[in-house]
Amino acid sequence: xxxxxxxxxxxxxxxxxxxxxxxxxxxxxxxxxxxxxxxxxxxxxxxxxxxxxxxxxxxxxxxxxxxxxxxxxxxxxxxxxxxxxxxxxxxxxxxxxxxxxxxxxxxxxxxxxxxxxxxxxxxxxxxxxxxxxxxxxxxxxxxxxxxxxxxxxxxxxxxxxxxxxxxxxxxxxxxxxxxxxxxxxxxxxxxxxxxxxxxxxxxxxxxxxxxxxxxxxxxxxxxxxxxxxxxxxxxxxxxxxxxxxxxxxx
Amino acid sequence: xxxxxxxxxxxxxxxxxxxxxxxxxxxxxxxxxxxxxxxxxxxxxxxxxxxxxxxxxxxxxxxxxxxxxxxxxxxxxxxxxxxxxxxxxxxxxxxxxxxxxxxxxxxxxxxxxxxxxxxxxxxxxxxxxxxxxxxxxxxxxxxxxxxxxxxxxxxxxxxxxxxxxxxxxxxxxxxxxxxxxxxxxxxxxxxxxxxxxxxxxxxxxxxxxxxxxxxxxxxxxxxxxxxxxxx
Amino acid sequence: xxxxxxxxxxxxxxxxxxxxxxxxxxxxxxxxxxxxxxxxxxxxxxxxxxxxxxxxxxxxxxxxxxxxxxxxxxxxxxxxxxxxxxxxxxxxxxxxxxxxxxxxxxxxxxxxxxxxxxxxxxxxxxxxxxxxxxxxxxxxxxxxxxxxxxxxxxxxxxxxxxxxxxxxxxxxxxxxxxxxxxxxxxxxxxxxxxxxxxxxxxxxxxxxxxxxxxxxxxxxxxxxxxxxxxxxxxxxxxxxxxxxxxxxxxxxxxxxx
Lengths: 250, 231, 257
Prior knowledge:
The structure holds three protein chains of three kinds. Chain A has helices at residues 2-13, 16-45, 55-79, 91-98, 102-136, 145-169, 172-181, 188-195, 203-207, 223-247.
């Protein structure tokens, strides 16, 4: 299993698009924190921010794009045809020949992706929060380690969410569209909470309760519940994706 | 009919010159990576050369207003998008050069794909993909045929069919230029031979002229390209 | 020397034969777009999601979200040339003049996208609010109302006028917003032509239109006028589209296929 994870890690980090995801994820959030600083300072002074401790954490959102790209390319690279002269040839064919037990293979892939995305999330969170503290000083209370870990968990779960949707759809475009639409300033999931309070339990928005305190949604969800709900979503999607992966031809 | 003059492309082609004449099959021979495909792609306006000219019937390929009626080209793959049916692929190609729709069914029939015309190109076997590529090349009933490794992926009966097709095309007065790294295939079908190695033409002339002094064309080829690229 | 075939050969005269070179290219490119299954799927999904969001009465603009479908539509329309099978070779063999081809591709995509964009904007039924089109629509409605009001039954006339005004407003808003969607689709096709990879180009187009543009609008008021804002067509949106298409066409012209 360790060697399988190792192989999947090498495969993932060998993709140029995966590096785009890595770099985008690492750079976007700290950049936004800097860009946002003047507006944020004014907002805190005017009392527009419900909970100033959310400040650095809110900027993390944009970096999640990187985690999503990683989740998408980890799957879509397997389904991309490899050449002109070989109809139906995909990397997946070689992968399955090398590791025919599909559940173990998927587990190895999920672990490899989680490792990369979690490391990316941790570095990004620490960098963004350190920058926020430097720029705002005493205005923002120092972040609690628990919330930082919760943010990293959210980051990892979102990467896995992208991964499982892509595995199900066998198409990176759909995942990319759905997730980017939901990363916008005013996300679709957030707007849906205005239509029905149940939308607050959609995977991407419920998870944010793990590390954000002042969210403007109709239902109050405690961090642990939020974490459990999001984990359940991701686990369910992975289970369905694994089942279909078993049944379909490579 | 085809005139290649002092073609150069950094790192790929060095001063390549040769001709292919009407009514004859010209074999363009060389090991893999010698510059055959590169030369043909420049001739067809797909890639650019730094120096030199490549003309079909006195004009650059891109200067022909309806190029499919002048040149039929077969490159690797089918040239069709995998999600489009063979018929839909040939129809847009026909429309682009003002050819009648009825011509699409004619060429499908000619290459034996009529029964599979509604299938998506991505579901074709390698041999069927090549046939579809050939059908596209024949759409405009062109006087010039340019074929890159035409027998690649064909089964024995397909190879025989291709050989007869090339001979009869030349017999009708067409100019046929085909590249290959398979000597046996070429010896039986070509009238003229151009041998390229590491981007340079090392021999050209009729099969007899190039073979002179060697037992077979294959021996001549190996002697001329000795130490060349591994293949 | 053996008998040479005359040049150029075909003697058949057909309807398409009499078309100009530009007309033939346009016909071929429209043909290609209409027979690509992924474009059909993308449009149907986009329309279905728009309808769904309309039915649940989503607050705010629906098109801000469903423009994603049009961006993907544009990317696929261009990048499918470079998918496996190298259709781009066939395209350039049939139509070797690259700059006219790039222009024709943009025109074909505009013609195919226009009815689809109108269908989606009519489904979303968003008035443009402050847009000049909406103002013109409101004015036309008011005028119609005034004219009808001069008739025998003033009261009913005003009612009808208001109805006509609302209708005008809706249609006008739809046409207006469709303009934005067409511009976005064309810009995305530029990204597809430039990057020649569907997932990569979709990532860039979606990020630019859904994340970067709105974020930068909110944070950097100095450059606000240079950023497109969904779903309003603007000079900025047109400039983005023209830039994307020009850069893509220049690259298409210069590099090897």
